[in-house]
Write a structure and sequence with these properties.
Layout: E1 15-19, H1 28-41, E2 46-50, H2 56-60, H3 70-74, E3 85-86, E4 92-95, H4 104-108, H5 117-123, E5 131-135, H6 142-150, E6 153-159, H7 162-181, E7 187-194, H8 201-214, H9 227-231, H10 239-242, H11 247-267
Parallel strand pairs: 1-5, 1-6, 2-4, 2-5, 6-7
Antiparallel strand pairs: 3-4
Helix pairs in contact: 1-11, 5-6
Length: about 270
């Protein structure tokens, strides 16, 4: 493990990254899966928690049938550790989702303390992972709030389109509210420009605008538009295993290295 030890000298605590977006098509699940795989390749042990009812991350990581997955956990039954599947990706495990999660928003609406259900279960997990990556839903409902309440950090993928910039502001306001009311340790670890087509002025302008508005919060790495990334899910392999010499594999390797550099800075 690679994190700093707890004050009492116990096992190191994982970095818990919520990968969230305000809408679909931002590269959210692509980032959750491929960052996890790239970190695994760099000898970090990673647990991916799939909170999206489309279960794309689960399928991508080779889970064919995860049952009702996290639904039972949110409705009062089950143990998070019992849901862990070991994937075929080195050093990466996954807690799968299912279409049952569609009903969770309604089920949680009358539940006292519903916003922190996931946090309680994650805090009870054994300290066997360096990173826990939460692949949030493509909306800012109860499941997204659960992810933010459980996380220590937020990673925000943003598609290189100007319409995405307005949604980003709303998402960051939500992060601030959750930090204020539920999770004072929460911070934005980085904003990631995704689906960047360097051949177009539009993509480059969006990246430039992100850097102008948010400065060092924007990762130096950008995720270029890449056909191989689009193909990889249908083969149930992350990009570093499906097309290891592709631009997508290179970009996520650089992102993982940048995230690990943050880890080192915390120790100094």
């Amino acid at each position: 493990m690679s994190e700093t030890k707890t004050p009492h000298g116990g096992p190191p605590s994982p970095r818990i990254l919520a990968v969230v977006s305000q809408k679909g098509g931002s590269g959210k699940t692509t980032t959750a899966v491929n960052l996890a795989a790239a970190l695994g390749e760099l000898d970090r042990h990673v647990l991916v928690v799939d909170l999206d009812s489309q279960a794309s991350a689960s399928s991508w990581l080779g889970v064919r049938d995860g049952g009702r997955g996290l639904f039972d956990l949110f409705t009062g039954n089950g143990n998070l550790l019992d849901l862990v599947h070991v994937s075929d990706v080195p050093n990466v495990s996954v807690i799968p989702s299912s279409e049952w999660l569609v009903g969770v928003e309604k089920a949680l609406s009358s539940e006292v303390g519903a916003e922190t259900i996931l946090r309680g279960h994650i805090d009870a997990l054994p300290k066997r992972w360096d990173y826990i990556i939460l692949d949030g839903p493509p909306s800012l409902g109860a499941l997204a709030v659960n992810a933010l309440a459980a996380a220590s950090e937020v990673l925000v993928p943003v598609a290189a389109q100007f319409l995405a910039l307005s949604g980003l502001s709303q998402l960051l306001k939500t992060v601030d509210v959750v930090k204020d009311r539920l999770n004072p340790r929460l911070r934005v670890t980085g904003i990631l420009a995704c689906i960047v087509d360097a051949r177009t002025r539009l993509s480059l302008d969006v990246v430039e605008e992100l850097r102008r508005k948010f400065g060092d919060l924007v990762f130096q790495t950008v995720i270029r538009e890449n056909t191989r990334l689009g193909e990889a899910p249908s083969f149930h392999k992350p990009i570093n295993l499906y097309a290891p010499r592709s631009a997508g594999a290179e970009d996520y390797h650089h992102l993982a290295a940048e995230v690990i550099t943050q880890e080192r800075r915390k120790k100094t």
